[in-house]
Design goal:
The complex is a heterodimer of chains A (96) and B (251). Chain A is α+β, with helices and mostly antiparallel strands and 96 residues long. Chain A is 18% helix and 22% strand. Chain A has helices spanning 33-44, 69-73, and strands at residues 9-15, 22-29, 52-57. By secondary structure, chain B is mainly alpha-helical. Chain B has a single domain (4-245), classed as Ferritin, core subunit, four-helix bundle (Ferritin, Up-down Bundle), CATH 1.20.1260. Chain B has ten helices and no strands. Classes of the chains: A alpha+beta (96), B mainly alpha (251).
Chain lengths: 96, 251
């Protein structure tokens, strides 16, 4: 632990049941990955929310910069044809 | 009471968890970090859950109008038969974890055997509880190692805690009259047989944590007979306050 006063931050991902994906549910502090798992178990799965936990130290996540949102995301806004909404679906196909 | 030995035997098990649960509950909002605070109170809630099953069963055996709450909340200090270890205060986090570890090792061994009890209610409670207690043991073992084999200061504090609490460990393996009667009926666990496995496990973890086993051979006892350290009275006054101040209150 380089900083003895503050434990590093960890991002917590919980799979709520088999077959579903792990979803980000929050973050917490822990000295290392083992403690992060135990803390995550106590903080995020105490009401039976999970069957599996992933922990990732927050510093290992590379995030997009909100300042670049213009070039990153706006070009997609006017390209509605990228959604598969231009097909005539037969009535028999449900849940689309 | 017809099954007096069984009744007393159940209290002997349950009082340990009640008093330790109350001690851990004192950390609500006062843990060293948000995460450890939640972890300690989770353990507390596990213990209270177990305690309810035991006291409900004991109330049924008593056969009068006694309820689980009467047993938990309305006895006097000398009527609690928990071991002295669990009533020791949360002096600091090292003490809290050392107390937890020294109890968890015992608790795990005890429940493993109680699962084989001829009494189906007790074996069912043991069966359900042992998963919770396995986690308690994992959690406290982890902290013994972290603090024991951590920094100079954490090592020193953990060693002090082990030194301070060691004297209360031997009592875990003393038998009461109710114990002896229940063991011969195939209902109870012979705690004297757990002693070797207990000290082996504790020694192994302490060695791995670079901690020394205290040399003292003098051990405190009395809790199982209702003779407690000065700490229990204060704990009970917190625990019982609401029922004493507002008798029969419910929420």
């Amino acid at each position: 632990m380089s900083d003895k006063k503050n434990w590093p931050l960890w991002e917590i991902f919980v799979r709520s049941k088999n077959g579903l994906e792990h979803r980000h549910c929050g973050s917490l502090h822990a000295a290392d990955e083992d403690m992060a798992l135990e803390n995550a178990r106590d903080v995020y799965t105490r009401r039976s929310e999970g069957v599996s936990i992933w922990v990732v130290e927050s510093k290992n996540i590379t995030a997009s910069n909100p300042e670049n949102n213009g070039e990153m995301f706006e070009p997609a806004h006017d390209k509605v044809y990228r959604h598969p909404t231009f097909y005539d679906l037969p009535d028999e196909v449900k849940h689309m | 009471m017809k099954n007096e030995n069984l009744y007393k035997y159940i209290l002997g098990i349950a009082d340990n968890s009640l008093i330790l649960g109350q001690r851990l509950g004192e950390l609500t909002g006062h843990g060293p970090s948000l995460e450890t605070d939640i972890a300690c109170t989770n353990i507390s809630l596990d213990l209270f859950g177990q305690v309810r099953s035991y006291y409900q069963y004991a109330a049924k055996i008593a056969g009068d109008n006694r309820t689980e709450d009467d047993i938990a909340m309305l006895r006097k200090e000398r009527e609690y038969v928990n071991v002295l270890l669990v009533e020791q205060p949360n002096t600091d986090f090292a003490y809290t974890m050392a107390r937890q570890f020294l109890f968890d090792v015992y608790h795990f061994l005890f429940l493993t055997e109680l699962q084989k009890s001829k009494d189906l209610t007790l074996s069912a409670i043991a069966n359900k509880s042992i998963k919770e207690v396995s986690y308690h043991l994992r959690f406290s073992t982890d902290w013994i190692k972290r603090l024991g084999d951590g920094t100079e200061v954490s090592h020193q504090k953990m060693q002090e805690a082990i030194d301070g609490l060691w004297t209360y460990t031997d009592e875990l393996f003393h038998q009461t009259e109710a114990d002896i009667a229940m063991v011969s009926d195939g209902i109870g666990v012979d705690v004297t047989k757990l002693k070797e496995a207990y000290y082996n496990k504790v020694n192994a973890v302490l060695e791995e944590s670079t901690l020394q086993i205290p040399e003292s051979k003098w051990f405190q006892k009395g809790g199982k007979k209702g003779i407690h350290t000065e700490h229990l009275g204060y704990l009970l006054s917190d625990l019982q306050y609401m029922q004493r101040a507002y008798p029969n209150m419910e929420w």
